[in-house]
Design a protein that fits this description.
7 helices, Transporter, mainly alpha, membrane, Sulf_transp_TsuA/YedE
Length: 163
């Protein structure tokens, strides 16, 4: 049995090893993420979080709707982190959840301003892009391609940017 395990590990490329060193699962184990993503998209549509008009209302300070959604998400996230730390909750795979402290720098402010500007101009945040496309707003494909291009540009010039 040991030789089978060794052979399997030797045949894998480093790209197939998960960050935690666990072995990859079959493709159909990832269907749970697809289902959660679809449900998440439906919630976004029903809550009007993907609405260009709601996003524009937020940036014009004309409506509390989006601020309420974002504020609720922050509160739920804070409570979740508190509970994870308090009760030492583990991941679905049984691994401990580790929170790393982050150092603040000016690049985060610049990046946040660029992110907000792009969000205000396009009416699309990276989270609901796929839900917007799924509702038939195919023009958002341009925004998706731009987001991918922006990610590539960041990766290309990362070492020269203020971090």
């Amino acid at each position: 049995m040991q030789s089978v395990i060794d052979t399997d590990l030797e045949g894998r490329s480093p790209d197939t090893i998960a960050a935690n060193g666990s072995t990859p699962t079959h493709w159909y184990h990832h269907l749970r993420y697809l289902v959660v993503g679809i449900l998440f998209g439906i919630v976004f549509v029903k809550a009007e979080v993907i609405s260009w008009f709601r996003i524009q209302e937020m940036f014009r300070f004309q409506s509390f709707h989006m601020y309420g959604v974002i504020g609720s998400a922050v509160v739920v996230g804070a409570i979740s982190v508190f509970l994870i730390k308090r009760f030492n909750i583990k991941t679905i795979d049984g691994e401990p959840v580790v929170f790393h402290s982050k150092k603040f720098n000016k690049g985060q402010v610049i990046g946040g301003l660029l992110f907000g500007l792009g969000w205000a101009v396009t009416g699309a945040c990276p989270g609901p892009l796929f839900a917007q496309i799924g509702t038939g707003a195919t023009v958002i494909i341009v925004v998706l391609l731009s987001a991918i291009a922006g990610t590539w540009v960041y990766g290309r010039f990362r070492d020269r940017l203020p971090h």
